[in-house]
Amino acid sequence: MSDILISTRGLTKRFGAKDVLKGIDCDIRVGEKVAVIGPSGSGKSTFLRCLNLLELPSGGTVTVDGSVLFESEMLAKRDALDAVVAEIKDLKSGNASQEVKEHRQEAARLKDELAKTQDALTDARAKQKLAKLRASRAGSADSAEVDEASVNCERLAAEIEELKAMLAAVNAKIKQKRAEAKHNQDAALLSELIAKKAQAKSEYVAAKKAHAAAMKKTNKSIDEHRRNMGMVFQHFNLFNNLTVIENITLAPVSLNLKDVKAERRKLLMRKLKGEDVKSGLAALPSKLEIVENAKATARKLLARVGLLDKADVYPSTLSGGQKQRIAIVRSLAMNPRVMLFDEPTSALDPEMVGEVLEVIKELADDGMTMVIVTHEMGFAKEVATRVLFVDDGQIKEDAPPQQLFGAPQHPRLQEFLSKIL
């Protein structure tokens, strides 16, 4: 049996037009402690949330224990269709012409230069007003500063007019070349692209149907998946109207009651078929037993993190470090196979960080499989067995901590570490 617990292939996530994850391939093995580092906005937390399906990926595959939990090519097929549609549009409009492309690049450069020059003129006019105000207060009718500011404004205004004229000329060339390209349109290429579009559309429709079917399957197994994958967030997400022990036992009690209800329904269905199910029904735990068992587990875990005396208090009376330790206990109460930590110390005061990291270190020493998004480089060096450097939605480097921090290979990682170490 493979020791790979979680595997992703081609994992993507898109929010609107923004691609946050751009094809993540990653294997997480049983017992590994994987630290995920990188600049803010690089996709680290999104990657973590996609593992737990708190964020549904846009494409790719998520496999858990060898079973495919999520799989979809819909986004990739849609992108392929959009690309062909854009190609046809460019061909029909004349924008596919190489000359048009070159002139459009030149127009874009001129627009950028024009915008910068207009900003410079705005600043120059503000300085001119300030110079005139100073000259007025000094009672001087003639001021070198005013003259210099005026000359600068005139020069920039002349540059703007020149750039506008150049841009107009380039736009005229674009219009002319587009008309020529449309007149000399390649009919064979257009026919080929139309056929390609029909094929891409067919593949997209098929992928869309497959995605819908896969999502039905995923929705059925997602609760079981999340039972085996605990998650601790940046902000503790405790219910302030529940005591500490109520926060910890809420999920185990609810899910166990749901399981008992489902099992009782199965037994009763068998009874309707004439089977003897008395022993099975008698073996089902009562609600009181489920609650007491959950509380016993919660107390053991609270004692483990040194917070047994806080079992019956409300979260509002706890420090940030205590709340985060309770959040960790709440996840552990589900007896997960893997723990996901999303910057667990980022919302804490510096003096409280240590107590939370100590709990995570103890879990690591006990062999818990963990994936930790963190900015604590020292902690990553000490605890992680592997470190992933994520930037721009991609894993740029994946190596043991000694190698990644001691001899970084990717230029972007070298730049990142030079700023924080």
Could you name the key traits of this structure?
13 helices, 10 strands, 61% helix, six-stranded mixed β-sheet, four-stranded antiparallel β-sheet, 421 residues, extended, alpha/beta
Topology diagram in text:
Layout: E1 4-15, E2 18-29, E3 33-37, H1 44-51, E4 59-64, E5 67-72, H2 74-93, H3 98-138, H4 144-183, H5 187-227, E6 229-232, H6 244-272, H7 278-283, H8 287-304, H9 320-332, E7 338-342, H10 350-365, E8 369-373, H11 377-383, E9 386-391, E10 394-399, H12 401-406, H13 411-420
Parallel strand pairs: 3-8, 3-9, 6-7, 7-8
Antiparallel strand pairs: 1-2, 1-4, 4-5, 9-10
Helix pairs in contact: 2-5, 3-4, 6-8, 6-9, 9-10
Structure report:
Helix content is 61%, strand content 16%. By secondary structure, it is α/β, with parallel strands linked by helices. A six-stranded mixed beta sheet has the order 6-7-8-3-9-10, sandwiched between helices. Strands 2-1-4-5 form a four-stranded antiparallel beta sheet. Strand 9 and strand 10 form a beta hairpin. Helix 3 (98-138) runs antiparallel to helix 4 (144-183), helix 6 packs parallel to helix 9 (320-332) and helix 9 (320-332) packs parallel to helix 10 (350-365). The protein is extended, with a radius of gyration of 31 Å.
